[in-house]
Automatic annotation (TrEMBL):
Lineage of producing organism: Bacteria, Pseudomonadati, Pseudomonadota, Alphaproteobacteria, Hyphomicrobiales
Keywords: Cell shape, Cell wall biogenesis/degradation, Isomerase, Peptidoglycan synthesis
Residues annotated as binding substrate: D11, S12, N76, T77, T191, H192
Pfam families per the UniProt record, alphabetical: Asp_Glu_race
Organism: Roseibium aquae
Function recorded in the entry: Provides the (R)-glutamate required for cell wall biosynthesis.
Pathway field: Cell wall biogenesis; peptidoglycan biosynthesis
NCBIfam families, sorted: glut_race (TIGR00067)
Protein name: Glutamate racemase
Length: 275
């Protein structure tokens, strides 16, 4: 039964929209609150300690103010760092996380060569190493950290085209050709990257499977919500909030395309203070 409370979707910017579009397919009537923590973008460049503190503080205030029925952390960089700490801090709340799709990649690869394309933060995480040890010990997993791709995706989605050469610089290390075997799967381990996947396909030196976990995240949310999912249509636009408080027409247009209306930063938290 619906109680009108939204599902909160969090990312540092537009990346979580790649998860939102899958959620909309499975849960079309679900009220959504989209939170882009763009004041902290790019999260991939943060040191672990201050980022954990920021996320803990941010979510205490968000959950207090908006009382979401569940939260999707649509960000590998944030969830691989602070997912456990957030669950501990809010034991009664459902967090659906995003982690590099290393397990499905290991199950699917034919060549045994898998690359994980992610932010520098996600590449450094103990969580990511553990996923490789637990699920992909029989594969050769190459971790490729990119400083620029999340930024490139932000620009591309706002109609500021990024050159093939700039994209190639970031992805070329994913392609390994050794002993007659080639990389056949690249895990898109940052939610910004699916928006560039068609560009990647065009410039890749050979075809690979670009693995996007968004559908699996949406299916997990369906399981977590169970009969709390909203089942009836409502005429409304869902709200998007930006922690920076910035308002750009390009951003508003983009959000509108995902059925989101940009609210004012004063709607972020009850006490109106900024992070
Ligand atoms: N979209 C985020 C992720 O999935 C990262 C972007 C950033 O560096 O802020 O990792």
């Amino acid at each position: 039964m619906s109680d009108g409370r939204p599902v909160l979707i969090y990312d540092s910017g537009i990346g979580g929209l790649s998860v939102l579009r899958e959620i909309r397919l499975l849960l079309p009537y679900e009220p959504i609150l989209y939170l882009a923590d763009d004041a902290a973008f790019p999260l991939g460049a943060w040191e672990e300690e201050p980022l954990t503190q920021r996320l803990l503080e941010l979510f205490s205030r968000l959950l207090d103010t908006h009382r979401p029925k569940a939260t999707v952390i649509a960000c590998n960089t944030a969830f691989t760092l602070a997912g456990d700490a957030l669950r501990q801090a809010h034991p009664g709340h459902d967090f659906v996380g995003t982690v590099p799709a290393i397990k499905p990649a290991a199950e699917r690869t034919a060549s045994g060569l898998v690359s994980v394309l992610a932010t520098p933060g996600t590449v450094r995480r103990a969580y990511t190493r553990k996923l490789i040890e637990s699920f992909a010990s029989r594969c050769h997993v190459r971790l490729v950290g990119s400083d620029m791709l999340a930024e490139h995706a932000e620009r591309e989605l706002r109609n500021e085209p990024v050159s093939d050469a700039a994209l190639m610089t970031e992805i070329k290390a994913c392609f390994l050709d050794q002993g007659g075997r080639r990389t056949d799967i690249v895990v898109l381990a940052c939610t910004h990257y699916p928006f560039l996947a068609n560009r990647f396909r065009r410039i890749a030196p050979w075809p690979v499977d670009w693995l996007d976990p968004a559908g699996a995240i949406a299916r997990q949310l369906v399981r977590v919500l169970g009969d709390r999912a909203d089942g009836s249509p409502a005429i409304r636009r869902d709200l998007a909030l930006l922690t920076s408080g910035r308002r750009e027409p390009g951003m508003e247009r983009l959000l509108a395309g995902f059925g989101l209306e940009l609210g004012s930063s004063s709607q972020c938290f009850d006490n109106q203070s900024r992070l």
